[in-house]
Structures are given as C-alpha cells and as structure tokens.
Design brief:
The structure holds 2 protein chains of 2 kinds. In chain A, helix 1 crosses helix 5. By secondary structure, chain A is mainly alpha-helical. Chain A is 83% helix and 0% strand. The longest helix of chain A has 30 residues. Chain A has one domain. In chain A, 42% of the residues are buried. Chain B is an all-alpha fold. Chain B has one domain. In chain B, helix 1 packs antiparallel against helix 6. Chain B is globular. Chain B starts with a helix and ends with a helix. The relative contact order of chain B is 0.17. The chains are: A mainly alpha, B mainly alpha. At the A-B interface, helix 6, helix 7 and helix 8 of A face helix 4 and helix 5 of B. Chain B: One of its GO terms (biological process) is cytochrome complex assembly. Chain B: Keywords: Cytochrome c-type biogenesis, Membrane, Transmembrane, Transmembrane helix. Chain B: One of its GO terms (cellular component) is plasma membrane.
Chain lengths: 225, 234
Amino acid sequence: MTFFRKALAIVEKDIKAEFHSKEMLSVMLVFALIMLVIFNFAFDVKKQIVNDIFPGIIWITFFFSGLLGLNRSFFIEKNQDCLLGLMLAPVDRSVIFLGKMLSNFVFLLIIEILTLPLFFIFLNIPVPQKFGFFLIILFFGSLGFVAIGTFLAALAANTRASDILLPVLLFPVLIPVILGSVAATKGVFFNLPFSEWSIWLKILGVYDLLFIVVPLMLFEILLEV
Amino acid sequence: MVKMERGRVWDYFLGPLAYVVLSVAIYMVFVVAPEEKMMGVVQKIFYFHVSAAWVAFLAFFVVFVGSIMFLIKRDYFWDGISLASAEIGVVFTTIVITTGPIWAKTVWNAWWTWDPKLTTAIIMWFIYLAYVVLRLAAGEEEKTARFAAIFGIIGFLDVPLVFAAGRWWQKTFHPIVFNNPSGGLDPAMKPAFFISLFAFTILYIYLLVKSTRINLMQRELNRLKDMVKEKIYG
C-alpha cells in the first residue's frame, strides 16, 4: 500500500466507526445549530449589519464545533488502547497523523455542508454572487484548522489535562487562519474584486502547507513511547 | 555538575554588568536624551518598550533553537534553556503590552490599536503562556520536555504568519492613520536607545543563565529525591 492509501484506511475506519454510533457528528451538528440561534440573539442580527458580522459568526461556529470533534478524535483512540494498536501497525507514524487529519476534515466538511443552508435561511442572507469562491475559502480555512488542530489534539490527549488544554494551545496558533478565513469571506460577501482579498487565500495556502508538513515531520516524535 | 561550576563565573560578571548598564541606560534616557517636542516626556517609554520587544522576540527565538536542539540531542540542558527563555519572554512581552497602551493613550488617545506589531506581541504572549501551561499539565518529565519542544517549534513558526496576517488585516480594514512613531528617531536620542537595547539584552542573558541553572538544579534535586525514595521504600 502506498503512503496515501494507508492513511485512507484510517479514514475509512474512522468514518465507519462514526456512522455506527453517530455520536460525534450529531453533537457537532446540534452544537452548530444552537450557536446559530445564540448568535442571532447575542448580536441582534439586522439587515444593515448582517454582512459585517456574518463571516465572523460562521467561522466561530465552525471552529468551535470543529473543536468538539478534535477533542474526540484522539480521546476515542485512548480508550481501550486503540492508539497503541494504531502505533503497532506496520506504518509510518506520520500516516496516523494524515489519516486522523483527513477524517477530521471530512467530519468538519459534513457539518459545514449541513449547516450552511440553515445559516442563509435563518439569518436572511442573500447568497453572494461568487459563491464558488466562498466554497474555496471554506475548504482552505477548514483544512488549516484540522491540520494544526489534529496535531495539537494528539498532543493534548497525551497530557494529564487532556481535553481542557486543547483550546488554549490551539486558538493562539490558529490566529492567521481565523483572520484569513474571516477576511476572505468578507471579501466575497461584500462582492469586492478578487485582487483585493486574494492575499488572504495566499496566507491560508501558506499556513495550510506549513502546518501539514511540519506536523507530518514531528508526529513521529510526538507518539514516541 | 561540571557544567554548573563553570557557569557560575558568569554570574559574578553578568549580574554587576547588568546593574551598571541598566543604570547607565536609565541615566541616558531620562537625563541625556532630549525630550520629544510633540509627545513630551511620555515618549521616553519608547526606549524601554522597544528594548523589551526585542528581548521578547530574542527569547522566543532561543526557545525555538533550544527546542530543536533538545529533540536532536535529548539533553535536558536544552530543555532547561527553553523553559527559562520562554518564561523570561512572557515577562518581557507583558512589559511590551503594558507600556504600549500607556504610551498610546497619550499619543493616539486610544489604549489599544490592532497594529500588526501589537497584535503579534499579544498573540506571542498567548502562545508562550500556553507553552508554560502545557509544561505544567504534561505529566512525566520526559514527556513534558518533548511536548514542550514540539510546541516551542510550532509556536515560533506561527509568529511570522501572525505578523503577516495582522499587517494585511490592518491594511484591508483599518488604513493606517497614525504616523509610524519609531520612524525618524532623532540622532540625539540614538545613544540612549542603543544603550537601553544593550542593557535589556545583558539583563536577558543574566536572567537566562540564572534561570536555566535553577531549572537544571530542580531536575537534579528531583533525581536525588527519587533515589532516596528508592533506597527507603524500594
């Protein structure tokens, strides 16, 4: 099996396990929806300001419900020493990282696709003209989030404090992704010319690349016994 | 043990040196350097603000290098340096983000602006605070050092991206309305500026040496304690 195929085997395992119980996805989904309602009341979303705050609302919702998934992804592996089983498999440790990252990515995308229409309906936002661009931003922003998120989740899960540690480790490091995703989304919703916000796609691209490659290199050290 | 004894010579030298240069820096800043025409006396914060920012950045760079060295050599000396440097860096970043608003309130009439440098400073503060928290929560000694080193590398690689993002954020949404204050530094102010830069650097090295030694002693003490415990109970 090639490197990538091995990683896909882990993704397949995660997705099968998740669709058996549907525990995590359902919690993430309900959480994202309740966030939508909370934001509506917290900001008293009106027509005049909706374009200004919508990018922030949507990304905070996705990142926070994504955080639930990340915490879960290595917690279930710690249970009954599944992680040890994975580590004993005759594969590179970096395969485990890539597989876990991709399955987190799939789960986050599922949540995003399911909740996105509801955001447009409940907050009364007209769909922007360049909706395709928004999907690209969604892809790169979520990829950056799960790349560094999966890595730090693995790190946090192996400490004594485990799940409460993750947000404190993750969010400061995530700042470029948060700024990039929100700013680029604003560009799309205000219908600005591409050249004015394309820099944010570049920043997201560099971030994604950096924080996929570096964790791939460091994961071996992280899972040392 | 040898490492410790050899290092001690530096204490006798660095401590007094830090004291002297800092005194000279204070004298230069408050007596020799002229008062800024527009900003008045509050401009003098600038000397310490920028010096602290420089030391903070230097300290986090040392964490980065120490982390890489630890992962390669697995020598706890490098872990001791990284921890010491991270803690000192957090203290100096705290100085940066407290002196900044005091200066800004008088000059810009706003406590805080999301200027890319200030943004980077406060995010660095959060990252290295997380570094310290991670060390407290990690568990065994070996794991603490290893995880901290990993996070020390990740955190430092993030800093340039934070700065780039902060700069573009300001350019897109908050066009720069203030003149850059650090731009034209009057030649008469330069000696005071460079001496305080130098003084802060010496202070950093002194604190680093001291604090690293404390960390290594702590480790040695824990090892001895374990040995005694083993003798009694084992």
